[in-house]
């Protein structure tokens, strides 16, 4: 009896080929590796820039106090805009909180599970020191849900502040007595980075796919750099 195949018959049609790393020129790995690295370097640069608070995209929410200081909620934290200067006053949390300011200058920051109330009259916004007068846990926070639902408008006595945005910009408009004026708009640097990030994210998946296709095309043209893989399935015979 012929025992050459140890009682098994291989399925030839299940055979596949893998890259023989020992035969592939190092130049190919260098060129393909540099090409592929562009996508991952770009995604990490955008992530680092926006999460660090160096530059900003579109805010999650906004609020305006009695002195018309603007509070902006980003994924990287909460910031105040005062006389054109933007400063961080609250660090990164699990999400950008919903913001609101009462008539007596109490700033409420409500994220998904926490609520903090800040007395702005006793806080030093220049140094980022906040006088927190109330803080509590709130699972399934209703204040957060309401704040996110109403984030495009902030009524203050006889003045209403409105948030409007487009693909690559946002503005806060002050409305009073039927008249509107621009209170704040997204800085030019932020617009440029936000546009670059959106284009980059849009091209990221096609770019990664192109790297995969280039890999496959190269080894189709050079089958001498591949070898037959061990069969994973064998049919048992008597």
Q: What topology emerges from the helices and strands here?
A:
Elements: E1 8-10, E2 17-19, H1 26-52, E3 61-64, E4 70-74, E5 77-82, E6 85-90, E7 98-101, E8 106-110, E9 114-119, E10 132-137, H2 142-149, E11 153-156, E12 159-166, E13 169-176, E14 179-185, H3 188-221, E15 226-228, E16 234-236
Antiparallel strand pairs: 1-16, 2-15, 3-4, 4-5, 5-6, 7-8, 8-9, 9-10, 11-12, 12-13, 13-14
Helix pairs in contact: 1-3
Could you explain the architecture of this structure?
It contains three helices and 16 strands. With 238 residues, the protein is of the alpha+beta class. It folds into two domains: 8-50 and 195-236, no CATH class; 58-185, no CATH class. The protein has a four-stranded antiparallel beta sheet, with no helix packed on it. Strands 7-8-9-10 form a four-stranded antiparallel beta sheet, with helices on one face. A four-stranded antiparallel beta sheet has the order 11-12-13-14, with no helix packed on it. Residues 1-14 have low confidence and may be disordered. The termini are close together.
């Amino acid at each position: 009896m012929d025992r050459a195949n140890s009682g098994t018959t291989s399925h030839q049609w299940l055979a596949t080929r893998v890259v023989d790393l020992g035969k592939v020129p190092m130049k190919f790995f260098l060129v393909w590796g540099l090409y592929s690295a562009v996508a991952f370097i770009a995604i990490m640069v955008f992530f680092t820039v926006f999460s660090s608070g160096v530059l900003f995209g579109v805010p999650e929410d906004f609020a305006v106090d009695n002195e018309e200081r603007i509070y902006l909620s980003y994924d990287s934290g909460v910031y105040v805009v005062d006389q054109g200067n933007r400063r961080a006053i609250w660090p990164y949390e699990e999400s950008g909180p919903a913001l609101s300011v009462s008539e007596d200058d109490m700033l409420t920051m409500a994220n998904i599970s926490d609520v903090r109330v800040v007395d702005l009259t006793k806080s030093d916004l220049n140094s980022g020191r906040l006088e927190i007068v109330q803080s509590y846990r709130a699972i399934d926070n209703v204040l957060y849900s309401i704040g996110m639902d109403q984030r495009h408008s902030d009524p203050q006595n006889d003045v209403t502040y409105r948030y409007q945005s487009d693909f690559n910009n946002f503005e806060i408009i002050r409305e009073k007595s039927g008249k509107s004026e621009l209170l704040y708009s997204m800085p030019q640097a932020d617009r440029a980075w936000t546009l670059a990030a959106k284009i980059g994210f849009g091209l990221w998946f096609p770019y990664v796919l192109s790297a995969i296709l280039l890999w496959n095309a190269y080894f189709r043209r050079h089958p001498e750099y591949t070898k037959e893989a061990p069969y994973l399935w064998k049919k048992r015979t008597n």
